[in-house]
Amino acid sequence: MFIIEDGLRLNAKLDVPVAAGEKCPLVVVIHGFTGHMEEDHIVAVCRGMNAVGFATLRADMYGHGNSDGEFRKHTLYKWLTNALTLIDYARGLDFVTDVYLCGHSQGGLTAMLAAGLKHDVIKGLIPLSPACMIPELARKGELLGLSFDPDHIPEVLNAWDRGLDGNYARVAQTIHVEEAIARYDGPVLIVHGDADEAVPVHYGIEAANAYKHGEMVLIEGDDHCYGKHLDKVVEAVKDWLKQRK
Ligand code: FER
């Protein structure tokens, strides 16, 4: 199905583990940079959530998967308004009790930012290997393994075989993750592989410590997309959600 945000279509999938007429909580799930909602780790996490009685709403974000928008024109602001649209869509479903938010990597960062904005409606937050260093790297001019002058950002950042508009970096420079963290005092579970090559694990650990009610599950030896122990990631998420029901 498509959820429309100001005329742009977000390709989305809703999975509901209860019978018609019954109610349940729902988790909005957001993929990472260059990712999409059918990635193995996104689907596995959603299935695990469904197995413990939580509905899931996963979506392709602006410029990714089968949603509208161009990859090169995506920014964290666009993803953030996408997240707000998905949260509001979920809140409008009559079977939904509480809304939770989960995201992987850049989607984890987006979830953290959205939870700061909607702290009064997000019941719990699950950043998976959150790329919370993107704003700081953008301010240093070190995104995507590239080096650039942060005060003279190039028109196009060419990396990972794809061009990304320099506006991505300009937007990222304005974002202050610590403010979003301070504004959210609900329960937070961060799951992170300790051999993550894309987002070093210390970023996840620091974020978990910075939250008022943050918990951390380390996945030993695992990489950014949990190529080794995806089952452990799913178990950690299920265990945490089961305690909230
Ligand atoms: C970067 C490192 C990681 C970056 C983005 C990521 C835009 C995001 C990874 C992901 O979402 O999986 O330098 O720059």
Structure in words:
It is a single chain. The protein has 245 residues and is of the alpha/beta class. The chain has one domain: Alpha/Beta hydrolase fold, catalytic domain (Rossmann fold). Helix content is 34%, strand content 25%. An eight-stranded mixed β-sheet has the order 1-2-4-3-5-6-9-10, sandwiched between helices. A two-stranded antiparallel ribbon has the order 7-8. The longest helix has 16 residues, at 76-91. It is globular and about 55 Å long. 45% of the residues are buried. Bound molecules: 3-(4-hydroxy-3-methoxyphenyl)-2-propenoic acid. 3-(4-hydroxy-3-methoxyphenyl)-2-propenoic acid binds at residues 32-33, 105-106, 131, 134, 137, 143-144, 198-199.
Keywords:
binds 3-(4-hydroxy-3-methoxyphenyl)-2-propenoic acid; Rossmann fold; 245 residues; two-stranded antiparallel sheet
Instruction: Label the structural class.
Output: alpha/beta
Bound molecules: 3-(4-hydroxy-3-methoxyphenyl)-2-propenoic acid
Distance between the termini: 28 Å
Order of helices and strands: EEEHEHEHEHEEHHEHEH
Strand content: 25-35%
CATH homologous superfamily grouping: Alpha/Beta hydrolase fold, catalytic domain
Please tell me the CATH architecture by its name.
3-Layer(aba) Sandwich
Strand arrangement, major sheet: 1-2-4-3-5-6-9-10
- Alpha plus pi helix count: 8
Kindly state the number of beta strands: 10
